[in-house]
């Protein structure tokens, strides 16, 4: 990789911890949950690696704590969506091959510009009847005629 290109992860709000300390999820809520989010409040007495110390020290403390355990060390905190991932079964419809549906040119495509709450409600009702839909999230800068 070129040395003159700044790595994008340097701009991340949260610093990524790649040490071998136990996984601690940072989410505070769990949308689409089958089971509620279990909020773990680890005690710093039983989990000294959770202290606000440099990662090298936390990693060392964790390695010392797991020494002598039989078998591989297990993280003390499970993935927040572990249950949902374990019970997930895709529907047969998701495995079905579909013919590609290409869009028409803009001037040949009918559309409704949603401007009111009532129109938004109608759209919501319509979307609740379909199994899939697409949303174009591209940003176009028309001032540059691009």
From TrEMBL:
GO terms for molecular function: 3'-5'-RNA exonuclease activity; single-stranded RNA binding. GO terms for biological process: exonucleolytic trimming to generate mature 3'-end of 5.8S rRNA from tricistronic rRNA transcript (SSU-rRNA, 5.8S rRNA, LSU-rRNA); histone mRNA catabolic process; nuclear polyadenylation-dependent antisense transcript catabolic process; nuclear polyadenylation-dependent CUT catabolic process; nuclear polyadenylation-dependent rRNA catabolic process; nuclear polyadenylation-dependent snoRNA catabolic process; nuclear polyadenylation-dependent snRNA catabolic process; poly(A)-dependent snoRNA 3'-end processing. One of its GO terms (cellular component) is nuclear exosome (RNase complex). Signal peptide: none annotated. It comes from the Eukaryota. SUPFAM superfamilies: Ribonuclease H-like. Gene3D superfamilies: Ribonuclease H-like superfamily/Ribonuclease H. PANTHER family: EXOSOME COMPONENT 10 (PTHR12124:SF47), POLYMYOSITIS/SCLERODERMA AUTOANTIGEN-RELATED (PTHR12124). This is Exosome component 10. The gene is EXOSC10_1.
């Amino acid at each position: 990789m070129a040395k003159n290109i700044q790595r994008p992860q340097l701009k991340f709000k949260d610093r990524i911890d790649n040490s071998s300390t136990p996984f601690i999820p940072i989410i505070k809520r769990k949308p689409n949950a089958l089971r509620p989010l279990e909020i773990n409040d680890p005690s710093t007495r039983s989990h000294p690696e959770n202290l606000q110390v440099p990662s090298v020290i936390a990693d060392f403390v964790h390695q010392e704590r797991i020494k002598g355990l039989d078998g591989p060390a297990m993280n003390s905190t499970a993935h927040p969506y572990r249950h949902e991932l374990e019970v997930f079964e895709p529907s047969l419809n998701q495995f079905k091959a579909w013919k590609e549906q290409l869009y028409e040119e803009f001037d040949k495509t009918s559309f409704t510009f949603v401007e009111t709450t009532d129109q938004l409600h109608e759209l919501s009702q319509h979307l609740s009847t379909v199994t899939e839909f697409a949303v174009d999230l591209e940003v176009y800068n028309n001032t540059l005629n691009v």
